[in-house]
Amino acid sequence: MDWIAVFTSLEAVCKENITALSGPPDLPYGDVSRRLVTCMRKIQDHGRALEPVVSGITAVYHHYDFDSDTPGNGYRTLVKVLQSCLLHIIHNGRYIASNCHRAFFRADHNASEMEAYGSVLCQLRALLYIAQGMLHDNSPGQLYGEQELSRWLVREYASMHKACFYGRCLGFQFSSSLRPILQSLIISMVSFGESYEKQHSGLGMAAFSLLTSGKYVIDPELRGEEYERITQNLDMKFWKSFWNLTESELVSGFASLTSTLVQVNLTLTIPPEPLLLPLVSDPRLSTPVSPPVAHWGPGPVNMRLISYELREGQDSKELLAFARTEAPPISLSLVPFGAQKRPPSPWLLIHFHGGGFVSQTSKSHEVHRPGWSLGWSKDLNVPILSVDYSLAPEAPFPRALEECFYTYCWALKNCHLLGQLLQQNRVCLAGDSAGGNLCITVSMRAIACGVRIPDGIMAAYPATLLTIEASPSRLLTSFDLLLPLGVLSKCINAYTGVDSETVQPTEGISTLSALGRDTASLISDLSHGASKWIQSFIPAEVLGSWSSSHQRSLDNKAHQRSVLPCSPDSSSGPRDYPDGFEPLRSERLSVIQPHSCPTVKNPFVSPLLASDDLLRGLPHVHIASALDALLDDSVMFARKLRNMGQPVTLRVVEDLPHGFLSLSGYAEEIKVASDICVERIREVFQQTTLPSCTRK
Ligand SMILES: CCCCCCCC/C=C\CCCCCCCC(=O)O[C@H]1CC[C@@]2(C)C(=CC[C@H]3[C@@H]4CC[C@H]([C@H](C)CCCC(C)C)[C@@]4(C)CC[C@@H]32)C1
After folding, report:
1. Atom of ligand 1 nearest to the CA of 245
2. What ipTM is given for this predicted complex?
């Protein structure tokens, strides 16, 4: 990217607009012209200040890439986001300069648009200063600091104005074809949040959400404000319910209209019986694998078998004895009359869904548009076993891991029932986000137990480090659409068991219906405790004066000094911004709870912290990452594996957000990214080395 050209154009556009709008008194929009001139002056100021920062970062950011063929890390992402913002400003600025004299110029609209991008630019400038501080503080090549999140950063995050990212500029950093779906998603989320707070339920909620959504379509500022509010205030129960929307009959009904139809879609419940698996080191010996026991003792595991074509074994009595499908498990109408069952496949894909460890099921990824599980079952013509592991906070670590590992072992023993060949078969693990984490940790467990490891892993934007440590890509959590920090920290606390009690699922109740269970009592004090935690840093007089308009940048330097009780605040980030600069502040403080609980450092929670011994022997790990907060997790993990001599590939898909696979079918770019994942899985299945069971 030619940054000199970008900054020169920005300067030119600013000057052009300032001259055009402050010149002739005959312009019909006096007030709006003044707004625009003020805004362009601020943008000009930001541009001039950002130029040296950007050139400093771009001069070194390649040192943080996985390798020279795979450019991608948080520094690059931040700069790329800035670039999108500047290009929008230049584009809009040129339009304004050449059209402001025309009769049909929508002055107010254009001014609001420019102001919105101006606010985004101001916040990005703050983040780039913080990133610059990280470059300075962190050891060379390291994307994470040595210490956990500093109090300074937490306070910065808590008080920063974020609404500008969710209003007019929503999704500006992503591919333009994604903007409509992202907009609909955010509008649904805020309307849903409003009805949630009004305690509506069921159809009432749907009707209310539909009614309220109109105002968020018309008023992007209101939408931004409201989104900022709900990401900061609403509890885990809200996020669980919204993220589980795809489970609802209404949404899945719509989705199934466009989804691929498969012949086998079978939900299974496997009873908790000990298994015996051959040892890789000496297959004549076996090792016992116990069923999941953490927190409430042995319990069954739920899973779903999906197969595009009916294969031998999949309609066997033995398998159907485990079925818990309400609807007919085998869509006989889809099996052509008189058609033969297909022979077993040499391949099996075991899938762990994402959802922050707290939400979603195999169903969320099942009826989705072509591109995700069901689509993959067709693309690869492979049976897929997707695990409905127990969710946090009811089931904190290690319950989900135990259930996934148990399922993996059960599948190895019972592959003939799943439509897979017994001999010389191949098994690949795939998952996104939290599911990517589980793919890696299940394989680590297989190594530790000495049983067969999978033949490969395909992890999409996986979480590999659950400690609250700052990295440049993680700075994106301050305005991420799907994973804002306040929400992420709730997921981490739920998974690691902070502030939660465990509840044994009721016998016979599936994970799906368990999702509807009221978890409020378990986490009711989360937000209360968290706001107290944040407020403990902030003196009462400052809190009182906080509720001013978000557009007003509070001079909080004095405040910062008074808030910071000389703590040894030496980790990443500047202690202050350059003189004369302050980001915009929010009228409300974010709720984040960065508890430092030892569980987050457990290598089976944060595989990036695992010792080489635990990782040595992992199969080929294919990682697909996005323009998201977890990019540095992927880059650092891939580098760690490569430095150990482990096989690993990393592909950074630019312009797509975290969770892009869940948005399959909405944009061509996602189809391309999903195809990359499919190709990686195919490579695992077709690799010429011997299957893992025969390797020692
Ligand atoms: C200031 C800097 C400080 C840095 C501090 C760092 C903090 C720690 C960072 C990382 C630790 C990682 C911890 C755990 C990560 C877990 C990640 C993880 O698994 O996150 C997933 C959570 C669910 C979700 C949001 C997701 C992806 C896709 C989303 C889905 C897309 C569509 C789905 C809608 C419900 C569809 C509705 C349609 C309807 C018609 C409106 C939606 C939104 C459901 C939710 C998912 C990512």
Report:
1. 35
2. 0.96
